[in-house]
Structures are given as C-alpha cells and as structure tokens.
Amino acid sequence: MASIRKEIIIESSADKVWNVIRDFSAGPSRMAPGFVVDTRMEAASRVVTFADGTVARERLVSIDDVARRTVYSVVGDTIRPTHDNASMQVFDQGEARSRLVWIHDVLPDDLATSLDAAMEQGMTVIKQTLESEAAHA
Question: Which of 23, 25, 26, 126 is deepest in the core (most CB within 10 A)?
Fold first, then answer.
C-alpha cells in the first residue's frame, strides 16, 4: 500500500484552519478554490470536482474536534481505489501559526504518483488560501 504524507506550516491559527478543514460538505472548495471547482453532497457522500476534471466521491469516516483531525475515504467516481484512507490534522504551532498534516493511504500503488502530485499542488493552494484569509481577518 502506498502512503503519502504532506506537511505545511500555515500562518493562521489552528482554530481558524480547523474551522475550514472540518467542514466536510464545503471544505475542499473553501480551502482550495480554483484547484477544487465544485464540492457538493450527494446522500452520505461528498463529491469533489478538481480543475483537471478528476472527480472523487468521498465518504466521511470521522471528525475529531479535540484532536482537530478528520478522516475520509475515496469510494469512487473517476478515481477508483481498491482501498483508500485519508486524514487531515491541524496542530497548534503558536498564536497565529499551525501545521497541517495530510496523510493518504491508497491501493493500488500505481495511484500514488498522481495522488502525490495532486496533494502537493493542493497543499500549496491551501496554504495560500488560508494565509490570505488570515491576513484579511
């Protein structure tokens, strides 16, 4: 199984970052506008459409407000893993700074290359978006 881990420091408080990350129904559009072009709920699934046309149907596994951690799983659409588990967790790094850790475990392994590139690009957009919001608050 491929395991991809991305980490960034965001110049915004952990509470503000968590407020966006924990929003399962709209979080992707809020945290990565332009990279994500649509997020909508269909029954118990979140359907995320990316700028490159990729569509991911995701199921919420858990939201832990104390640990500031959310877990979800890609269950289909244009991405069809045989196994998928992802988590995003926000850590306090001081008054106006946080660390975001995004981990994605996926099978088959050949999905890892494109997923790694997408996560890298996504993290760049997330950092820019959330820091911009913090600067204008």
Answer: 126
Tokens of 67: 């640990």
Packing angle, helices 112-135 and 14-21, rounded to 10: 130
List strand residue ranges (DSSP E) for the chain, in order. 2-10, 36-42, 45-50, 55-64, 69-77, 83-92, 98-107
Arithmetic mean of pLDDT, 119-131: 97
Identify any residues that bridge with 56 across adjacent strands, giving them in sequence order: 48, 77
Interatomic CA distance for residues 26 and 48, integer angstroms: 9
C-beta separation of 87 from 69 below 8 A: yes
